[in-house]
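Supplementary Note 3. Input sequence used for the single-chain structure prediction.
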Amino acid sequence: MHSAVLAKNAIAACLLPPGLFLLLMITGLILLTRKPRLGRGLIAAGILSLTVLSMPVIEKRLLLMIEPPALVSIPGDAMAIVCLGGGKRFAAYDQPEGETINNATLARLRYTAQIAKKSQLPVLVTGGKPLGGISEAVLMAKILREEFNTPVRWVESESVDTQENASLSVRLLGKNAKIVLITEAAHMQRAQMAFENSGFRVTTAATDYANQEPLSILSFMPKAQALSRSSFALHELLGILWHRLRT
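The predicted structure, written as discrete structure tokens, is reproduced below.
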């Protein structure tokens, strides 16, 4: 595992739910005997926060804060489509390589193939192997070619995060290149910032938007999937804030 990825994931586990709120509750339990009011307050805060962020209605609101509008038209002066990897699965026992892309990456590839066929633009896929194994970009290129019948011109297979997706892609396409950038809707704002700061002119083509089911009593009932998506949204919001502080 890449050391920087290990450090970032460890920090994120402590700053994001459920890790942050579990730490609050554990701290509260430790303080119960010495400072019972503070201890009870921390435990209550942890439980309440976990409950609220597990509600689908809250998850949807958080995601809507960062999701951009959908692509309207493909610019005529665009040079390439750039598709970002979104992760992979190691225990892919149904695949010859034993590894394959995850569902988030598959959604991005599907949209990439649609836009590539419509626009005839060449495709760059970017994604390394921060956890080891086969690079995401290698798997992405194979699936685009073999399953979506979409050629791939550039394969950037060394990056370990969004910033490196951008900085290593610019070496292949050159600065000031106009690209159509494809990634998950909730990830797009941070990805756009990284690519524009690296010298690209970006048209966003977001996919995999949050599912907007009709409001009902179920929208207020805690669900594990909603907590996971809330955590992802908070991760992106923290990333956007960090990026703005640095630039």
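The chain has a mean pLDDT of 94. The chain has two domains: 3-66+224-237, 80-207.
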